[in-house]
Structure formats: C-alpha cells, structure tokens
Design a protein that fits this description.
It is built from 13 helices and eight strands. It is of the alpha+beta class and 346 residues long. The chain has three domains: 151 residues, Lysozyme, CATH 1.10.530.10; 81 residues, no CATH class; 73 residues, Membrane-bound Lytic Murein Transglycosylase D, Chain A. The protein has a four-stranded antiparallel sheet with strand order 3-4-5-6, with no helix packed on it. The chain has a two-stranded antiparallel sheet with strand order 1-2. A hairpin with a 2-residue loop joins strand 3 and strand 4. Helix 1 crosses helix 4, helix 5 runs antiparallel to helix 6 and helix 9 packs across helix 10.
C-alpha cells in the first residue's frame, strides 16, 4: 500500500518539475526575444559607427545583463558589466562581483551603456580586435577573453554559443549594409559643405525607372510621391515587395483594403527608418502627427515614443522639441551623460 502511494507522489513531483522547467524556459526565451527586439538596432548602429560586430555587442549584452534583467542592469542601466576605472567621471553604483561592493558605471539610459561599451573597446588594450574582420565573431570573442574583458575562462565559448544559437550574425549583415549606405552617402556629398551635408537631402546617382532616388539627412533612400501613386504600383516600378514600402514607412496594411495612396510630395522611404536621428532634436509643426514627424526626420515611431516618453496615439502640441538620439528624463531634458559632453539640454 505504501509503495503505490510513494510512486504516485513521485509521478506528481516529476510532472510539476517538468512544468516548472518548461515555464522557466519559456520565460527565458521571452526575455531573450524582447531584449533582441529592443536593442538590435542599437547594436547595428554601433557597428556602423564604431566597427564592433553587432553580434558581439548583443551577445555581450545578453550575457552580462541576463537579457537586461540582472540587478546591475536594473539598478544602473549597465548592460556590459563595465567597472568604474580611474578615467570614469560619470555616475556609479556599488555591486558585488569578483569582490564585494565593487564600483560599476551607472547610466541614465541603457542606450548610453551601448555607446560607452563601444568607446570602452576603443582603448589600446583592445586595439588588436579591430584588426580582425568585422564579421569574425569567433575571433572577437576569443580576443575579448584574451584581453581580459571578463574573468570567466569560458567567456569566449559562451559568447560564440549565444551568437550561434540566436543567429546574431544576421545583425552583422545589417551592420554591413548600414556601413555601405553611410559610405555611399559620404562619397556622394564629399564636395559639399558641412552645412549641406547635415541639412540638405541630395539626389542619388541611382535611379529606378523614371524616379530619381534621394538620400535623406538620416542616410535613407527615398522618393517623393507623385500624383496618382499607389504603393502596389510603386513596388512593381521600384522592384520592391509591397510589404517593404508599408513596413519602411510604417503604414498599416489592412487585408482587403485598396493600396495606400500617398499625398503628392509625401516622403516614401525605400529603406528602413533609423532608431536615432542626425540632429539632437526636432520641433513639431502645427497639427503634425507623430507619423508625420517620423517621416520628416527618418526615425521610427517606436523610437520617438521611447526616447520622448510618449504614449502611443497621444496628440502632439505644436512647437514641442522631440529628442532624436537620447531618451529624455522626467523633466524633458537630455541625460546628464550627454549634457556633460556638450549636448544641448533642450
């Protein structure tokens, strides 16, 4: 009698154990997917600007911050476990690591952690990494371990596993594409003045059909809508899929509805918008919607919402400054980290 009872309890505990294990795995996978969705564009941007593989940046962020859920990340927006060091002049936080109560860097926003991570790797100590091919993630992972980025003897293997298990090399390809776009943009404007480079969109040497392609100040190819244009027809003319035009321009494509018809002169992007702008700020115009601001500056609506602490669907007041690069604080100011380096507070 006792044996069947014990066997029954063992089965119950095994079922519960499997259930808890599956639930924990689902939570981890959800956290990982959310982390990549939030920070993939930032990693690609850092690759284009600083030459660090996006796959390496994301793998380090995942590992060091526990998918953004670690105590250090939650308390100080530090996603890369960077300690204070003697040259750090910003905010700090105490955290137990190799020793109790060690000094770590603290940031007003996690995006600053990504920027500082890139700057940190520009130190002489890591100079050899930049001699590697920008897509050699294995070489970068081994180099980070060799240079002593972390004390874990398996650090390189952990990074490589994260990259391969989550197909992070796909973001390296996005980084390469952005680098190519930036190079082409610079080449096209090599003879222009600095003010023209910053403010004036220029026609591209390229064209598709009868359409002259232009490059926005945020380095995105676009055309201006003409009378009678429809997205489905434009996609065929420009050798694109209709969904690309809808996605790149953040137009909701509803099943069964006729093709979207833009207004004459409306910007139509032929590449994805960015997560940040060239300028620090953009000022809203009279009766302008968030989508119209997004089209004007080439920055995704979700990024504008996050950076400016907006509520989706909320109306915009005329003459309001929206941040294009950094997330503002509760007082509508740029973070202290940016102001310290000369950024206008708005």
């Amino acid at each position: 009698m006792l044996f069947p009872l014990l066997l029954g309890w063992m089965v119950i505990w095994m079922i519960l154990g499997c259930s808890f294990s599956l639930s924990a795995q689902q939570v981890r996978e959800g956290n990982r997917a959310a982390y990549l969705e939030q920070w993939k564009d930032e990693a690609v941007y850092q690759m284009a600007i600083h030459g660090i593989p996006a796959s390496i940046t994301l793998a380090q962020g995942i590992l060091e911050s526990g998918d953004g859920k670690s105590q250090l990340a939650a308390r100080s927006n530090n996603h890369f476990g960077i300690k204070c060091h003697s040259d750090w002049k910003g905010a700090t936080v105490r955290h137990d690591d190799d020793r109790k109560g060690e000094c770590f860097r603290a940031y007003d926003d996690a995006s600053q952690s990504f920027e500082d991570h890139s700057t940190f790797l520009k130190k002489t100590r890591y100079a050899g990494l930049f001699e590697l091919d920008i897509t050699d993630y294995k070489g970068w992972a081994k180099g980070l371990k060799k240079c002593g980025y972390a004390t874990n003897p398996k650090y390189d293997r952990l990074l490589i596993e994260l990259i391969e298990q989550n197909d992070l090399v796909a973001f390296d390809q996005e980084g390469l594409a952005l680098i190519a776009e930036r190079t082409a943009f610079s080449d096209n404007l090599a003879d222009a003045s600095e003010n023209e480079k910053r403010l004036t969109p220029k026609p591209s040497d390229d064209s598709r059909g009868d359409r002259a392609l232009q490059l926005s100040e945020n380095h995105i190819q676009f055309i201006l809508a003409q009378s009678g244009d429809r997205y489905d027809d434009l996609a065929l003319e420009l050798d694109l899929m209709p969904w690309q035009l809808y996605r790149y321009n953040e137009i909701e494509q509803k099943r069964g509805e006729t093709s979207y018809s833009p207004k004459v002169g409306e910007v139509i992007y032929l590449q994805p918008k960015r997560t940040r702008g060239i300028e620090l700020w953009i000022e809203t115009q009279e009766r302008e919607t968030l989508w119209e601001v997004s089209q004007r500056c080439g920055v995704k609506m979700a990024s504008l919402i996050r950076k400016n602490r907006l509520t989706p669907g909320s109306p915009l007041e005329t003459g309001v400054k929206l941040s294009l690069q950094w997330r503002i604080d509760d007082n509508g100011k740029l973070p202290g980290y940016v102001r310290m380096w000369g950024g206008s507070s708005g």
